[in-house]
């Protein structure tokens, strides 16, 4: 015979378990539910880009919105839309990354000018999208295929011949995973392909802030520079050629 106390404890325990299962189940359904069609997803990307350019969103707010949207992508549909199967037939370079364009003109309801640049990066195993930062640019990656090692750094200081940077992200990335950049968060990235035929989806919004006077080109740097106190790194500026020689 169990006591009334034991009986109640068991009852509450199973109620909690049942509630938990029910919650997980409904959440999972919900997650499926909110995955928009790829056309709608692209439209949302255009809308948040317009809000960034219209200064309704700060760059860091845009970054958060972009990550939320990227998390809800239907990866299979995205790959189909940008014709990844055709891109995969192309040759990948022996150093650095290739970039391939794709066409969004057939997407229902998009304006002629989407407000962002777009491309697919492709790397052979062991090659990389070399370390670089950006100025006046928000950008985001979604891993389409392959295993990557992704690293991000905050750009804390800019000097004549070097940057002071702080590591922020350093981990493995697989298909469907994402990372983003703005001038104020995770500004530098470096993605190393760790399996054959690695591909990344990229959207970038250049010149969103009229107060930033630096040009929007890539800022190449040696992220394996001198270690400073507080986990900071003194990272010398590099040319693209030198950066590709060391990291490509
Ligand atoms: Fe970049």
Detail the topology: elements first, then pairings.
Blueprint: H1 4-34, H2 38-53, H3 59-71, H4 75-81, H5 84-87, E1 98-100, E2 117-123, E3 128-133, E4 137-145, E5 148-158, E6 162-173, E7 178-181, E8 188-193, E9 198-206, E10 219-220, E11 226-227, E12 233-236, H6 240-247
Antiparallel strand pairs: 1-2, 2-9, 3-8, 3-10, 4-7, 4-9, 5-6, 5-8, 6-12, 11-12
Helix pairs in contact: 2-3
Residues 132, 134, 139, 189 line the site of fe (ii) ion.
Q: Can you tag this structure with a few keywords?
A:
alpha+beta; 2 domains; binds fe (ii) ion; 248 residues; 5-stranded antiparallel sheet; Jelly Rolls
Overview of the molecule:
This protein has 248 residues and is an alpha+beta fold. The chain folds into two domains: 1-34; 37-247, Jelly Rolls. It has six helices and twelve strands. The protein has helices at residues 4-34, 38-53, 59-71, 75-81, 84-87, 240-247; strands spanning 98-100, 117-123, 128-133, 137-145, 148-158, 162-173, 178-181, 188-193, 198-206, 219-220, 226-227, 233-236. The chain has a seven-stranded antiparallel β-sheet with strand order 10-3-8-5-6-12-11. Strand 5 and strand 6 (162-173) form a beta hairpin. The longest helix has 31 residues, at 4-34. The radius of gyration is 22 Å and the shape is globular. The chain starts with a helix and ends with a helix. 32% of the residues are buried. It binds fe (ii) ion. Fe (ii) ion is lined by residues 132, 134, 139, 189.
């Amino acid at each position: 015979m169990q006591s009334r106390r034991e009986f109640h404890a068991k009852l509450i325990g199973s109620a909690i378990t049942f509630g938990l299962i029910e919650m997980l189940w409904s959440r999972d359904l919900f997650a499926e539910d909110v995955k928009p069609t790829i056309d709608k997803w692209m439209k949302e990307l255009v809308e948040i880009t317009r809000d960034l350019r219209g200064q309704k969103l700060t760059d860091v707010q845009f970054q958060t919105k972009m990550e939320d949207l990227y998390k809800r992508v239907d990866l299979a549909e995205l790959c189909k839309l940008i014709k990844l199967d055709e891109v995969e037939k192309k040759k990948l370079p022996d150093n650095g990354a290739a970039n391939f364009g794709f066409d969004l003109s057939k997407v229902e309801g998009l304006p002629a000018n989407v407000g962002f640049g777009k491309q697919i990066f492709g790397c052979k195993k062991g090659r990389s999208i070399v370390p670089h930062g950006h100025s006046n640019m928000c950008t985001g990656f979604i891993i389409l295929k392959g295993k990557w090692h992704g690293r991000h750094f905050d750009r804390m200081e800019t000097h004549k011949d070097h940057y002071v940077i702080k590591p922020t992200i350093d981990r493995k990335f697989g298909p469907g995973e994402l990372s983003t950049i703005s001038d104020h968060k995770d500004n530098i990235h470096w993605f190393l392909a760790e399996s054959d035929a690695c591909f990344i989806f990229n959207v970038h919004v250049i010149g969103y802030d009229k107060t930033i006077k630096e040009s929007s080109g890539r800022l190449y740097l040696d992220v394996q520079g001198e270690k400073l106190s507080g986990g900071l790194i003194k990272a010398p500026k590099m040319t693209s050629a030198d950066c590709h020689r060391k990291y490509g």
